[in-house]
């Protein structure tokens, strides 16, 4: 197949913590040599695109800010488009809050005045936060939004709890699921991706380390998918994957072999 684009995950695919994963830089160079300008798409909601430009640069990969989409990007745009006048309560790290505070969106800590509750990764999440989320979501008219579904995230030394862990705990006590789950593999994220590509989605490869987000995103849009074993998904995940990846490789460098078919 003549691939014209590539959508690449970052954490667990290109880097782990601050360290580039073996073969990742070479793999991206192969894609660029083939005339493919990758779009980097991450479910990290705490960082804007500019932070990933710096992070990838430190790993030896130069990329422009408009070639990076984060779950923070998607969340901010979604709230601006659909809840511009709403009172928004956050259960989230300061990085998520910082991005929203740079906009005209209205944030509140008052559960009685909340129209939308946004839940995300929160490294200071505690029992009081869980109580406030429960009381807020007791009102059925409050919209419940998750920034991304990642239960665990790849970190420098070992996997750590992600947004999905916080969101699921809130959903369990509130006895209701999020009305909207952003991040990969959501339709909302796919819409943002489409605005950044100048090639058809079906001509793109999706490359990542997670079956439930990266591979599911590709399957949703009819793109060819590549699972990289360098991140979260293990042998059991791959064996039971639904949807199944079209290709499984050890590192991003091996994607070059697909370009030669």
Structural commentary:
- The protein is α/β, with parallel strands linked by helices.
- It has two domains: 5-43 and 184-259, HAD superfamily/HAD-like (Rossmann fold, 3-Layer(aba) Sandwich); 83-181, HAD superfamily/HAD-like (Rossmann fold), CATH 3.40.50.1000.
- It has ten helices and 15 strands.
- The protein has helices at residues 24-33, 49-58, 71-82, 94-101, 127-137, 163-174, 187-196, 211-221, 235-239, 256-259, and strands at 5-8, 15-16, 19-20, 39-42, 68-70, 87-91, 106-107, 116-119, 143-146, 152-153, 160-161, 180-181, 204-208, 224-228, 247-249.
- The protein is globular, with a radius of gyration of 18 Å.
- The model has no long low-confidence stretch (mean pLDDT 95).
In short:
This protein is an alpha/beta fold and 261 residues long.
Question: Which tags fit this structure?
Answer:
261 residues; alpha/beta; Rossmann fold; 2 domains; six-stranded parallel sheet; five-stranded parallel sheet; 10 helices; 19% strand
Record the SSE blueprint.
Blueprint: E1 5-8, E2 15-16, E3 19-20, H1 24-33, E4 39-42, H2 49-58, E5 68-70, H3 71-82, E6 87-91, H4 94-101, E7 106-107, E8 116-119, H5 127-137, E9 143-146, E10 152-153, E11 160-161, H6 163-174, E12 180-181, H7 187-196, E13 204-208, H8 211-221, E14 224-228, H9 235-239, E15 247-249, H10 256-259
Parallel strand pairs: 1-4, 1-13, 4-5, 6-7, 6-8, 8-9, 9-12, 13-14, 14-15
Antiparallel strand pairs: 2-3, 10-11
Helix pairs in contact: 5-6
């Amino acid at each position: 197949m003549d691939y014209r684009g590539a959508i690449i995950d970052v954490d667990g695919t290109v880097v782990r913590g601050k360290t580039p994963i073996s073969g990742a830089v070479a793999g991206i160079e192969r894609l660029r040599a083939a005339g493919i300008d990758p779009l980097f798409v991450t479910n990290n909601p705490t960082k804007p695109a500019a932070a990933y430009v710096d992070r990838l640069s430190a790993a030896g990969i130069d990329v422009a800010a408009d070639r990076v989409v984060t779950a923070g990007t998607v969340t901010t745009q979604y709230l601006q488009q659909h809840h511009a006048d709403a009172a928004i309560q956050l259960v989230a790290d300061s990085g998520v809050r910082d991005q929203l505070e740079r906009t005209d969106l209205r944030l509140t800590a008052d559960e009685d005045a909340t129209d939308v509750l946004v839940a995300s990764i929160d490294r200071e999440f505690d029992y009081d936060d869980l109580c406030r989320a429960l009381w807020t979501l007791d009102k059925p008219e409050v919209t419940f939004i998750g920034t991304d579904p990642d239960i665990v995230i790849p970190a420098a030394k070992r996997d750590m709890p992600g947004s999905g862990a916080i969101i699921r705990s809130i959903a369990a006590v509130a006895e209701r699921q999020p009305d909207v789950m952003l991040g990969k593999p959501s339709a909302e994220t796919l819409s943002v991706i489409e605005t950044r590509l100048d090639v058809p989605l079906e001509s793109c490869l999706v490359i990542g380390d997670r079956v439930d987000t990266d591979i599911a995103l590709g399957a949703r849009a009819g793109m060819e998918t590549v699972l990289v074993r360098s991140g979260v998904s293990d042998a059991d995940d791959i064996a039971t994957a639904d949807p199944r990846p079209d290709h499984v490789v050890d590192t991003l460098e091996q994607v070059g072999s697909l370009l030669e078919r």
